[in-house]
Design brief:
10 helices, about 325 residues, globular, binds S-adenosylmethionine, eight-stranded mixed beta sheet, 14 strands, four-stranded mixed beta sheet, alpha/beta, 2 domains
Length: about 325
Amino acid sequence: MATAPRLAPSLLASQALAEFSSDVIVGLGQPGQKELPSKYLYDEVGSALFDVICLLPEYGLSRAGMRSLKRYAPDIISRLDGSFVVAELGSGSGQKTRFLLEALSRRQRVNYYPIDISSSALHRCQQELGEMDRVSIVGFERAYLDGLQEVAARRRDGEHLLVLFLGSTIGNFDRPAGDQFLRDVRNVLREGDALLLATDLEKPVPQLLAAYDDEAGVTAAFNKNLLARINRELDGDFDLSRIQHIVRYDEAERRVEMHLRSTTWQRVTLRKARFNFFLREGETIWTESSHKYDPQEVPRMGERTGYRCAGQWFDTEWPFAQNLFFAV
Ligand SMILES: C[S@@+](CC[C@H](N)C(=O)[O-])C[C@H]1O[C@@H](n2cnc3c(N)ncnc32)[C@H](O)[C@@H]1O
């Protein structure tokens, strides 16, 4: 895949490392609950582990997204009037996007722009979708909104934008931040542009907990890899043999939380960041949230953030919705 140019690779890498280092210091240095941004779960190892998570029997979410797009992509695409370019936020390997691109490419040539902070995810996306007829791909190794702004600037007069935000990745934002993110996306769009937003729906708590704490321990490895990444990139000395993967459901917030819990007191030094701190016995670092939705709340999220909901399509095996919004 062609990848949109940015800065020289060495400059880019040192900027990314400086940003990583500063976010880690803020998240681990704050009083109270320690936190790390979930976007840092996706380095090369993390992206590969996430692809395995999508195959796990417990992680029904990914198969639900796949099944619903396989079944409903022609109907979803039939709701779009005119010519569209496609931007995908956090494309990952782009596996389920194939169904949408196939349906759209039956009526027009498609320019598809996957946007992901993980270069290895973009690489896999190219392998997955690079051979499709009538589809050309340019990947953007960027944060969501930076990438979207660049894609929007490339479109020609008369072309609409279809933004995909699949996999219920919106659930990583808490509800107010999710609304703000939808507003920020809307600010880049023009009236008539579309957003396909996938949302994982509420379901029994044991089923949700198992989805993020599988028997084979792949999600635990995905979570712990964040500290292993800190050890690798910031020359840290987290003792991972004394770290446990923990999953909780917060009933009030309707979200699954992933944490990393230290089983003993440990002092940690991150030499490259010139930073040290300690973890108390039992203390956790919060690494990811996955909010779950009521089907009726999703159109309302759209309405209060600058869209109209034109349709919802549901998976019946694993409650999950594809929601089509138009910018108004
Ligand atoms: C949960 S995965 C979903 C992947 C894919 N959309 C799917 O449905 O399987 C989230 C993806 O978003 C990317 N990502 C996370 N935070 C990001 C950010 N702030 N900007 C751009 N990409 C991000 C990750 O690298 C990862 O590939």
